[in-house]
Amino acid sequence: MYKKTTFSNGVRVVSETIPHVHTASLGVWIDVGSRDEDASCNGISHFLEHMFFKGTRTRSARLLATDLDRLGGMANAFTSKDTTCLYSTVLHSQLTDLVEVLGEMFRYSSFAPEEINREQQVILQEIAMAEDTPEDMVGEIFEAGFWGEHSLHRSILGPADIVANTDRAMLTEYLSERYRADKVLISCAGRADHDEVCELLAPYFADGLATGLGPQRQAPRGDRPGHKQVVTKPLEQVQLIIGVDGMEVTSEERFKLVLLNILLGGNMSSRLFQQIREQRGLAYSISTFIESYIDCGMFGISCGVAPENVMESLAVIGAELASCGDIASYSKDEFARTLDYARASLYLSAENLEARMTRNARNELYFGRKVGLDEVMAEFNKVTMAEVAELGHTLFSRPLHATLFGPIAGNEVDWSVLG
User: What is the pLDDT of residue 215?
Assistant: First the structure.
């Protein structure tokens, strides 16, 4: 059973009661991420996520860790381009204690200067680790070129010099300015009664938070030209990302996009995986991905290949992108397999409480309501092969953005093979 309550200050609580399980997953979601930052504080949302675990008015960082571990479940957090989340999955009998700990972390973190100084060093190591990971670095470089001057181009971790100069005043000011009641959503899925969950949450979330709209987001320009770049670095492989403007998360065409994603690079039988890995052995893996936000999106392809295989890989990718827009390249069997994969993925994810908690949260954030599995499957069943082909033609007629990162020079690349 799914229920929703909105506290008088605007904080929303959604829950899905599943009585036959023994656990519950609960997440505190904040509709704030790195896209909401400006250049002077880039990385502060991620820094705040870390600091929520570094002590409150009654618990030290060590005691917080001990209390979370004592619950016997899993506790974690993440920051994305547009959201921040603190979450945990525990035995249903431990839900009261979990709400107390997460509520205190969110509302009453102390942001002690000595903890800030320590965590700065941790985040600087996280940044260094990402810079030593080619798959991460190519993503940062690609997005900087893809989004241009828009705030979506900024790193979630932030640049090292900004992180090193972040202090308590900056953290608390940003918290009060951005983390307002209307931006907060709590999602719970599992063996939990909705009214009891609301009662547990009320002391921490029903009042005391700033209200009123904070700074509003701006959508990126839709007329950005294609951006292609080669960044040379002595690595074993060349990391490749190619992308085009996609669509916002609420687009009516999102079901077609998911099927196109599966068909082109979403699994082992997909066109790119078969062509690049299975038939030619050019890469260990290749995949496509979708990034969708409330006002924009991206469709991308990523893989890593040997330097001598770059041009052949680009040519194969270009041919497959063109093929996706040609209805003659589709077969009923391929389309049926794609739909079966979408159906199985949808229902398999429903077996995981954390996935259900996350799904309910995102549906509330983006659609303002529950979007049931049967509703989603009904929309998938409406999609035709011709519509997927038409979407493929539309997407890949848009300006292409591409980044090559690794042991290759710009004069070795002929981008025209992408079409």
Answer: 76
Residues 301 and 199 in one domain: no
> Which residue, 142, 171, 205, sits at the end of a domain?
205
Task: State the CATH number of the domain containing residue 355.
Answer: 3.30.830.10
Q: Are 51 and 71 in contact (CB under 8 A)?
A: no
Strand partners, 27: 87, 187
Per-residue confidence band for 105, with pLDDT thresholds at 50, 70 and 90 = very high
Q: What is the pLDDT of residues 136-163, one digit of tens each?
A: 999 999 999 999 999 999 999 999 999 9
Q: Which residue has the tokens 């006002």?
A: 295
Q: Which long-range contacts (CB under 8 A, 24 or more apart) does 354-358 make?
A: 354/25, 354/87, 354/89, 354/189, 356/16, 356/18, 356/25, 356/189, 357/16, 357/25, 357/26, 357/27, 357/87, 357/187, 357/188, 357/189, 357/190, 358/27, 358/87, 358/187
Same domain, residue pair 35 and 155: yes
Residue 216 lies in a domain: no
Question: How many domains does the chain divide into?
Answer: 2
**What is the C-alpha to C-alpha distance for residues 351 and 356, in angstroms, rounded to an integer?**
8
Cβ neighbours, 10 Å, residue 38: 10
CA-to-CA distance for 260 and 215, rounded, in angstroms? 35
49 a catalytic residue: yes
Residue in 16, 37, 49, 119 annotated catalytic = 49
**What pTM was estimated for this model as a whole?**
0.95
User: H or E stretch including 300?
Assistant: strand 297-305
Nearest partner of 402 among 388, 416, 382, 389, judged by Cα:
416
Domain final position from 170, 205, 240: 205
Token pair listed for 401: 């953005």
- Residue 118 scores a pLDDT above 80: yes
Write the CA distances from 87 to 27, 50, 79, 135, 355, integer angstroms: 4, 13, 12, 26, 11
| CB-based contact 84:78 (threshold 8 Å) | yes
Cα gap 280→68, rounded to integer Å: 49
